[in-house]
Design a protein that fits this description.
Layout lengths: L1 E9 L3 E10 L2 E13 L2 E9 L6 E5 L5 E3 L8 H27 L1
Length: about 100
């Protein structure tokens, strides 16, 4: 089994933290998390994961609350992980702006 973590820098003070476990070319579980740098701390904003044995998205609020999406259907966890990376790369700034609105 292969476990990996890597970072994808995004414009501004943001990044994607990608973690996954893979076996024989198949993703067994993953987390793709958007983080932004506020006041000297990397803050989680939104994440896709398989923590409950299904793919879902958590939108994290400044007060610690988590808004959970319903289970999401994909042909494979690999497809879901690629979707998550693409979504957070394309829409990350919108998620960060929403987080900042929630904060004020």
């Amino acid at each position: 089994m292969d476990e990996r973590e890597y970072l994808i820098p995004l414009p501004g003070d943001a990044l994607l933290r990608v973690r996954y476990q893979k076996d024989r070319g198949h993703i067994l579980r993953f987390t793709v998390q958007l983080e932004a740098y506020f006041g000297g701390v990397w803050t989680p904003i939104t994440r896709y994961d398989t923590a409950h044995r299904f793919v879902h998205r958590d939108d994290l609020k400044p007060d610690g609350a988590e808004l959970k999406s319903p289970p999401m259907a994909f042909a494979s966890y690999g497809d879901a992980m690629n979707y998550a990376i693409r979504d957070l790369r394309l829409n990350g700034q919108l998620y960060i702006e929403r987080y900042l609105r929630w904060k004020s």
